[in-house]
Design a protein that fits this description.
With 160 residues, this protein is of the alpha+beta class. It has a single domain, classed as Aminopeptidase (3-Layer(aba) Sandwich). It is 28% helix and 37% strand. A 7-stranded mixed beta sheet has the order 1-2-3-4-5-7-6, sandwiched between helices.
């Protein structure tokens, strides 16, 4: 029997502290080394671009994903982009990247930068398919458990 797929109506809204519990549930389910409440709070306090992708009626929304990005002089640095595990492989990362690129261009950015774990082949493939290029490596950038560190692949996307 084939499952009937129903389209999901999604919307972006600014991340606020009232979403932190839901964001942390997703973050902890998606990563071995998740961001903390303090990381998200500090990002909001610093004025970083932090957007949620939610579905369903306001007040009873389901969190599909989120991103946090920092604006620089002529660039934007993507700090965190996460799709809730139960909504992965449905195109939501691309939707969020599209929104981030539009916002970045509106801010006058010429480049979008990110780091991704060397071991995260699935995310690297998403970024490469989107048009990001591998431009370098940051040795021992990420924690990897029990005093271990993991390299980061540095990727960039031209926005001009």
């Amino acid at each position: 029997m084939n499952a009937v797929l129903h389209p999901i109506e999604a919307r972006f809204e600014p991340m606020t502290a009232s979403w932190f519990d839901a964001v942390l549930r997703v973050e902890q389910s998606a990563y071995d080394h998740p961001w903390s409440r303090g990381n998200f709070s500090d990002s909001l306090n610093a004025g970083y671009q932090a957007q949620l992708l939610a579905a369903g009626p306001e007040g009873a929304s389901e969190l599909l994903g989120y991103f946090v990005a920092m604006k620089g002089v002529d660039e934007v640095h993507l700090l965190n982009i996460t799709v809730a595990p139960e909504h992965q492989r449905q195109g939501w990362a691309r939707v969020m990247l599209d929104a981030l690129v539009l916002w970045s261009r509106s801010q006058g950015a010429l480049w979008l930068w990110l780091e991704v774990r060397v071991s995260n082949a699935r995310a690297r493939a998403v970024y490469e398919h989107y048009g990001f290029r591998h431009v370098g490596t940051r040795p021992a950038y990420y924690p990897a458990g029990s005093s271990q560190r993991e390299d980061a692949v540095v990727m960039s996307l031209g926005l001009s």
